[in-house]
Design a protein that fits this description.
Mean pLDDT: 80
Number of strands: 0
Number of helices: 5
Helix content: 55-70%
Shape: globular
Number of domains: 1
Amino acid sequence: MVYNPYRRAGVADTGGMSPREIEASAFAMVNRALREARTPHERVLALGRNHDLWSIILKDVASERCALPSVLRDDILRLGLFSTRRSLRAMGESAPSLAALLEINADMEAALRPAAAAPSSRMSVPPLARVAEHASLAAMSA
């Protein structure tokens, strides 16, 4: 059995998926949990999954083995720090806005999926450009 670090974020069965597909599926599952959370308890659980997912991503991106270009790596680190902080802060709020987390996760999912599988209803801006834009905004709000 292969170790699946995304199990904590709710992705249990990876049945032959590539690492990018696993990560994209994890973002999709977390976003679904965030959107469908109706009670404060469900919201905290979904925010916990979001925090776990971003913690896994941060660990992978900060690793010496990470082969991403340094600019992209830095952008993802900024987004991850913003998302983990925002998740924790939202757990303590009665009615937190999850819009920023949902948008960032959707753009990460789109950037990880093959071009043919990307949602056609998204803006014409390439997903990686949106990820960089989010990272800039996250840096300003830190």
